[in-house]
Amino acid sequence: MAARCSPPARPSADSGADSAADAMSAEMDASVDDVASQPDAAVIDGGIVTTRVLIVGSGFGGAVTALRLAERGIASVILERGKRWPITTQYNTFASLLLPDHRSTWLHTESQLPFGPVFRFRKFIGVLERISGNGINAYAGAAVGGGSVVYGGFVVTPRESAFTRAFGTRLDYGEFRDTFYPRARQKLRASTIPADVLAHPSFNSERVWREQAMRAGIEWTQVDLSVDWDVIRREMAGTIPPSALTGEVIYGNNNGCKLSLDRTYLADAEATGMCRIEPQHVVKEIAQQPGGSGYAVTVERIDTAGNPLERKVYHCEYLFLAAGTYGTTHLLLKSKHRGGLRNLDARVGQNFGNNGNAMFMRWMVGANTGPNQASFGGQAIADFSNPISPALVEHAQFPAGVECNCLLHLGMTLDVGTGSMRYDEAQDKTIIDWPMGTGDISVRAMQNLAERLNMGNGGTLNGTQPTVNVTVNGVLSNFTYHPLGGCVLGDATDSFGRLNNYPKLYAIDGSLLPRSAGGVNPALTITALAERNIERIIRDDFT
To answer: What confidence tens digit (pLDDT) does each residue in 58-79 have?
Structure first.
């Protein structure tokens, strides 16, 4: 959904925008770009690498696992398909939101967001991937730090009733409330936006959001974020270029205010000397070793254009899969199909969900929302009395660069449809099946909320909406920023993420969650669940 006004001028594939971005990011990728410019280079056979513990993926589950193992003196290797994205002294690490370049997108030549104009650029291992499924598009991060590099920083604790409704008897809310949520919150440095930051003009849309919820008689709340507010204060003071204040979030934040995992859990794990991260390593397949003596993991090291440079096989005793809902499930389904993990539980690939994601834009809301809608405001509508489905609905910034008089809403309903995943040999791809109508509950819940907000404030869902997806009466639901399930705790695994029939093989990411995180953003719950599971696994499985 884009603003009513004209978007910024769109560069063509032949414009200088991409060249300028190349120069800006040269500091980070010069060493690998030299190789990427040689497409005919032979792929090297890197042989066998042996490690006791191998972790696939550096997102929330993988980062927690690496740190807690390291603290117990257990060394690990993390394989991450994406690259490192250190914050540069020029504050130009990431692509801009309004004019994205190759750094924005994982191995695709066009931008992939569910809304707004499409931009073209060269293929690169950028930070965000769109996985096109059968009826739904799912988004995933691709970087050292995984999804934490591209998420909105929301670390939200679900209400007990919603948690119980989502997880049933699989998990004990009291255990999470008293132990694992506080542990995760402390490490992620969760906090609400300070009053002085919220008062800045760039956060005007956040204040309008809150006022309009109150005027419509709908409960609102401030939710926690993993943000360094002093960095944003430096933006406010003009001592560093604006980034959060101009809405940069989904492609990364150039000033480093977002406390992504490469600056928290992973940084601490690496500092112990017990964890080694291998960026640009794409896992292709897993096979159990003869006699059940560990696992062989086939890997390609790639350049920044995605070309293979080297093939390796990692042999490990313990294997933790933390490649995200799609990545973990894909590896398991493919490896089962190819025979390397032929005895996997039949429920791998089942119980997929979109965390109730649905999005809508309200236009002509009767107030100026500002040309620069800042990131990390943390304002949310707690619509838990919604007659269709309880929902948490967050203000998603829409920094159009001009006044749009609009507010973008991202909802997470508690009632979630059910999809599934299956491996397709011909495409060498796992397909997400999301039957028509699966997201109808979320659509109807968001329509109900929009009607109440518009009745109390003015506004309409009918605006100029050039999207790459389909809206139903102004609500977009055939996407998810929060794919969950596929390797669900207590179904495809035991109650601590051990894969059925495979000793010392674990899922430890969002694939464990049964379709929903309890009507809130899943990052905190994935982190807390990983804290819970690795604590028990270290105690019982390591000798």
So the answer is: 999 999 999 999 999 999 999 9
Write out the H or E segment, with its range, that includes residue 530: helix 523-541
Under a CB-based contact definition with an 8 Å cutoff, are residues 223 and 192 in contact? Answer: yes
- pLDDT tens, residue by residue, 127-137: 999 999 999 99
pLDDT score recorded for residue 464:
52
**Confidence grade of residue 6 (pLDDT, cut at 50, 70, 90):** very low
Residue 462: what pLDDT?
79
Q: Which residues contact 485 (CB under 8 A, 6 or more apart)?
A: 325, 350, 351, 352, 353, 510, 511, 513, 514, 515
pLDDT for 11 equals: 36
The residues annotated as belonging to the active site are 394, 482
Q: DSSP H helical segments within 154-287, as ranges?
A: 160-167, 173-175, 181-188, 195-198, 204-215, 229-237, 265-271
Where residue 363 falls among pLDDT bands split at 50, 70, 90?
very high
Q: Which residues 6+ apart lie within 8 Å of 253 measured at CB?
A: 94, 243, 244, 375
Phi/psi of residue 299, nearest 5 degrees? -135, 145
3-class state of residue 494 by DSSP: coil
With beta carbons less than 8 A apart as the criterion, state whether 401 and 4 touch: no
CB 48 within 8 A of CB 315: yes
Q: Spell out the domain ranges in the chain.
A: 48-85+127-189+259-353+479-543
Are 129 and 59 in contact, with CB atoms under 8 Å apart?
no
From CA 8, how far away is CA 108, in angstroms rounded? 22
Predicted pLDDT of residue 9: 34
Task: Tell me which CATH homologous superfamily contains domain 48-85+127-189+259-353+479-543.
Answer: FAD/NAD(P)-binding domain (3.50.50.60)
Distance CA 194, CA 190 (A): 12
C-beta separation of 318 from 53 below 8 A:
yes
Q: For the chain, what percent of residues have pLDDT higher than 90? A: 85
